[in-house]
Amino acid sequence: MLATFLAQTAATTPIPDVAWSSFAPELPPTITALVLLLVAVARRRQLLVAVPTALLAVAAGVWLIASGETPGALVVPGAVAIVLGILAPALVVATRGRTSLLAAWAAAASLVAALVLTVWQYLTVLTPDGPTLVPQLAMADAIANDGIAVFTRLVVYLSALLVIPLGYGYLQDRRINRAEVEPLLLLAVVGMAALGSANDLITLFIALELLSLALYVLAGLARRDRRSQEASLKYFVTGSVASAILLFGMALIYVATGTVTLPEIGAAVGLVTTPRFVAAIGLALITVGIGFKVALAPFHLWTPDVYQGAPTNVTAFMAAGTKAAGFAAALRLYLVAFPDLEALWVPVLAVLAALTMLYGAFLAVVQHDVKRILAYSAISHAGFATIGLVANSDAGLSATLWYLLTYAVSTLTAFGCVIVLERRRRGEVTLADLRGVGRSAPAIAGILAFALLSLAGIPITAGYVGKLVVFEAGIEAGFTWLVLVGVLASVVAAFFYLRIAGMMFLEDSPEPVEGPYPSFGLSVGVTVSAALVLYLGIQPELLLRLATDAGVLAR
Amino acid sequence: MEIGYYYAVSALLFTIGFVGVLLRRNAIVLFMCIELMLNSVNLTLAAAARMWGGPDGQVFVFFVIVVAAAEVVVGLALIVNLFFRRGTLDVDVPQLLRY
Amino acid sequence: MLSEYLPILLLFVIASAFAVGSLVVSSLVGPRAPNPTKLAAYESGNEPLADVKGTRFSVKFYMVAMLFLIFDIEAVFLYPWAVVLRELGWFGLVNMTVFVLVLGVAFVYEIGRGGLEWD
Fold this sequence. Notes:
The structure holds three protein chains of three kinds. Chain B is mainly α. Chain B has three helices and no strands. Chain C is mostly helical. Chain C has five helices and no strands.
């Protein structure tokens, strides 16, 4: 019966057109992850993997350049493929058999390629004749290529690119550097990027699981550290329960509407024949699931434990990337699929946002471990990002996307500084350990203070511009009370962060600590991300305009 | 047969799984409860696919099955590792991550 | 439309009422006089002679189970594909080749890490 059914379906539905340009930026990280898995087991025969890969990549690049309909249409992706192909054996030779170093460089190269392809996609595919974004649907409407997708890609690839140098040094220090780290990281990145462009429930679910499964393993990377184990298990249990709840919500939506494509759901939810009751329960379950994934207030309980226990570089990536991808999916879900149920979800999410902001801000004050403090700050920031979502407008959408970018760079800088401090102390860093750091290591203390100010939202930092835009969108949509709560939470947070900065510079340390200096990768990662925080703080125009353009949805 | 029965059974299964996750402390049992939740979703989707008569629901079921298998594998790996480290499967025994 | 879901609600209510009710009634009505003989294993149930924890499965079985599961489940995609192979033509063939190649990478990795070595 299934056979005849499938045969009929295949005969009646046309074969979908695989518009490869709609997922072109995801190709380099995916392929690199696979190749790196092979390299990991190749031992001394790494060239045996690298050379065929290089030949295939160069051939694909030449074919791409030659096959464009108009001459030069596909020069950029072709050139990217050729450069990556040449890099593969060159890196193998240059790293002389040190697999983890090779993996770090290859992953970084593939992420740069992904960023280049994202920009190419934005400039030539999505805005071919000028600045107006032309959203596209591809792969039988499973993938939407629009502002949300492009912006999520930028945030996620950028965060991963910054995390790789930070993580390399950190994992070397803790002696947990394994060849699987970078492939898993790349797969998580691909999942996040796909989550930003998922336009039907199936794609959304698979992308979410791809990133979650990779992160479960990454959180437990330190296999001999019991805290890392505990973090990993907690993350796994809460994460999979959240996935199951989300999935049940999706199933109920399918029961109610009979379709899995988000725009069609949006059209069907408004119909009189659709059982609103079932759709509403589905929406509630989806909200719970999404709330778990992005850590909104009643569903955040796993966050501090997981953030504290996981290796710090993984924590940084979770904070920056998962939040961006989760909110991108939430934006698309709520704004495209459930505009007719806004009377239900807008007030609920507004209350959740208020709770989240206050909870995160107040509980950060009583913590002792620095990673835990940053975890509560992550919870609080999820609340701020939700303001743009409840604003339920194009301005709010741009504001949330923009806020996630500013939060990503700020939190990456802060976690980078934590990694450097952990290296100095050869262990975890508590609040008391920060005393006197301003004397013994002024540079790192200054950068950490700067990142904390950005998280608090003080002017000339990225965080300030982020909060400003989100609050504007909130007030425009009439959520003045929510913005006031946000301001209150910011004041509490700012007070607390300033106290930490004061501790670092004004108090003396009980005993001087002299650990090793930050390694090359750590210095580069922290400096570049701090520079980005400053750049977004004083020159936000370029990317803010991109975020504003990104408000165009492929509805 | 009325389609509502399928939904009722799957809702019950889902509830049993969810309550199990909240109450049980053995990692393997916890894990089976999560599987129960995922498979109740499969039942819902299959019934709904029959009701609506399109391929979407059945395709969804396929992907849920595969993702559930991947989750089992990752979860089992974590649990085996956990067992080696602390010699018990009780998820509540050692709590190092508190403030 | 909503009335169709009424039976589900009723079922829920009756089921939970029955479960809670029988527990409450048995705890209220039932006499309780435990003594060691009563608490002992019943009929053919014997007191365990050895610690059950001693007889564990080797972790290798778990490894094999996991690896089997992963590769076994992926085959679920091959059946529908095989059924409509002719309709899909080259498109289906190329896509399935890519899929199998990705699985092949996983397989090579598995062998390389020694996942299939028993000792």
